[in-house]
Write a structure and sequence with these properties.
Number of helices: 2
Low-confidence stretches: none
Radius of gyration: 12 Å
Distance between the termini: 16 Å
Mean pLDDT: 91
Order of helices and strands: EHEH
Largest sheet: 2 strands, parallel
Length: 49
């Protein structure tokens, strides 16, 4: 899980979707720290495609 410049509202407005990662959950760069701080210390993230 990491922040990425290709994820965010401005990217969606410009391209109609977020960019692609290599499998990691990518977050908007301005939201990555609050989200990671919220889910750290024992939280499970289950992502299924």
């Amino acid at each position: 899980m990491h922040g990425a410049p290709y994820v965010g509202e401005s990217v969606v407005q410009r391209y109609g979707r977020i960019g692609r990662s290599w499998g990691c959950p990518a977050l908007p760069e301005d939201m990555v720290k609050p989200i990671i701080n919220t889910i750290k210390n024992g939280t499970l993230v289950f992502a299924y495609y």
